[in-house]
Amino acid sequence: MSLPYWGSRVELMEVIAMARAGRIHADTTDFPLEQAVEVYGKLKAGQITGRAVLVPPATYGRLLRGTLRPAAIRPEISA
Questions:
Q1: Alpha helix segments (H runs only) across 1-79
Q2: Which residues are CB-neighbours of 75 under 8 A, at least 6 positions away?
């Protein structure tokens, strides 16, 4: 587990612009909020690649049913 270094405000704005332009890809895996303790253990053990995203119950169900696009809850990954 490590803490990210965001850099200066200008650098952060440049990274956000690059992400919006599709030049950066972040590996994420969505998990229901109820699994937070288990997910933390998996992160600590190095069993998850990229970022783990905990999603509230109603939102997670909509993701599974395909009625909610991930970009609706995380705009930085919109296509």
A1: 9-20, 36-44, 57-65
A2: none
List C-alpha distances in Å: 43 to 7, 30, 71: 24, 13, 23
- Tokens at residue 30, please? 């969505």
Q: Distance (Å, rounded) from C-alpha 55 to C-alpha 34?
A: 9
pTM (two decimals) = 0.54
**Nearest CA among 51, 57, 58, 55 for reference residue 70:** 55
Q: What is the pLDDT of residues 43-62, one digit of tens each?
A: 999 999 999 998 887 776 66
Spatial distance between the Cα atoms of 50 and 29, rounded to a whole number of angstroms? 8
CA–CA dist 63, 56 (Å, integer): 11
Q: Which of 68, 63, 67 is nearest to 30 (CA)?
A: 63
